[in-house]
Amino acid sequence: MASTQTGESCGHAARKTRFICSGTSAPTCENVPEQMTRTDGLHTTTLVAGASMGVAALLCFALSAGFSGGKATGSHEAVPKVSSLQAQIRTAEAKSAALPKAEDAERALTGALTAANQIAKLQNDYRYLTPGMTASGGKLDAGASQSTLRNLLPYFAPAVHQSDLGPWYLLASDKDVAADIGIPMSFPSGFEWLAQVPCLVNDDNTITVTWLAMETRTGEDGKPAVLAWARAHYDLVRKTFSKIQTGTTVTGEALRQGVKGP
């Protein structure tokens, strides 16, 4: 059974929830995203037509129930059921009409993935702070992290608190990694944040995007372990993310570098 630690900030616009989940190589609790594979581009089918298909199914069922023109042809007992079915059809039709067209949805999913990839790169930049944090007892150097934070801010809604945009995960063993020439992107960390390909446009014009923190070295089973995950909602109108959630697996929690405030 997973244990959870939850915190909220900035009213209802931004929420950061931290989950620690059972399992050694991938999150398994119900709050954890299901997509676990590394993906570099959009290759899954856009699921925008789902509501339309639901409408068609309801209509077929309605016809088989025996009504046309909004009037039941069966017994009086069937009238309430038919009325309820008609209401469901109207609701499904309204949701279907609100969804973007297939080409617009594909464009939106591509835009969300592009932004998500940039966020993954910026979160990866935080990794080079690990050696310094270890030396200071886990305290995050606010000055050193400001550049990454400033670059992250434009991708998120204004109501998202800056504390939600700090390092989502750091690996304790990175304290022993040589920093090379001191450029964050060249830091050879033991893990890497990867954006997962989104495949669904929600009926509220948002896209749920997931990131996974994956080991860069293979484990005993020949596969890199999932250490942590993050999730946020991408607003198609504002082109920003909100409702941030983060979590770690049991393996990731055991290997995590704790972070203290500045």
Over the alpha carbons, how many angstroms does the gyration radius reach?
23 Å
Proportion of residues in β-strands: 15-25%
Q: What's the N-to-C terminus distance? A: 33 Å
**Biggest pleated sheet:** 6 strands, mixed
SS class: alpha+beta
Strand order of the largest sheet: 1-2-8-7-6-5
The counted number of beta strands is 8
Features:
six-stranded mixed β-sheet; 6 helices; 262 residues; disordered N terminus; 8 strands; elongated; alpha+beta; two-stranded antiparallel sheet
Reconstruct the topology from this structure.
Blueprint: E1 3-9, E2 14-21, H1 50-65, E3 67-68, E4 71-72, H2 78-98, H3 102-125, H4 130-135, H5 142-152, E5 191-195, E6 206-215, E7 226-235, E8 240-249, H6 250-255
Parallel strand pairs: 2-8
Antiparallel strand pairs: 1-2, 3-4, 5-6, 6-7, 7-8
Helix pairs in contact: 1-2, 3-5
Structure summarized in a few sentences:
The chain contains six helices and eight strands, in the order ββαββααααββββα.
Structure description:
With 262 residues, the protein is α+β, with helices and mostly antiparallel strands. Helix content is 32%, strand content 21%. It is built from 6 helices and 8 strands; from the N terminus they run E-E-H-E-E-H-H-H-H-E-E-E-E-H. It has helices spanning 50-65, 78-98, 102-125, 130-135, 142-152, 250-255; strands at residues 3-9, 14-21, 67-68, 71-72, 191-195, 206-215, 226-235, 240-249. The chain has a 6-stranded mixed sheet. It has a two-stranded antiparallel ribbon with strand order 3-4. A hairpin with a 4-residue loop joins strand 1 (3-9) and strand 2 (14-21). It is elongated. The model is unreliable at 1-53 and 67-72 (pLDDT under 50).
